[in-house]
Amino acid sequence: MQLEEMKKEIEELVLEKGFYNKPEDAPKKLLFTFIELGEASDAWKKGRREEEIAEELIDVIFYVSDASRLACPSINMDDMFQKKLEKNKSSEYQYGEGHRLDHEE
Length: 105
Ligand SMILES: [Mg+2]
Description:
With 105 residues, the protein is mostly helical. The protein has five helices and no strands. Bound molecules: magnesium ion.
């Protein structure tokens, strides 16, 4: 399933279940993303089964996808994924992790 397909599936779920669905609700979705990250981390910390950890990570993906639907509705997330991947691939080795270079002497 591609990201745009996921967005549509999640939108259907949101509408069916009566969840927040306005552009101004995007920050809530992002906050919920952090909560789900915490649940994933907690599940890992407690040595839960991989399936439980994966389920929490899927919740993260759900909220990120839903936030994108509300916050940047005109963006095709499949195209953006590809664009960002290419951008990151063309960046220098360990880009954004300059602090690591300080310790590698
Ligand atoms: Mg969860």
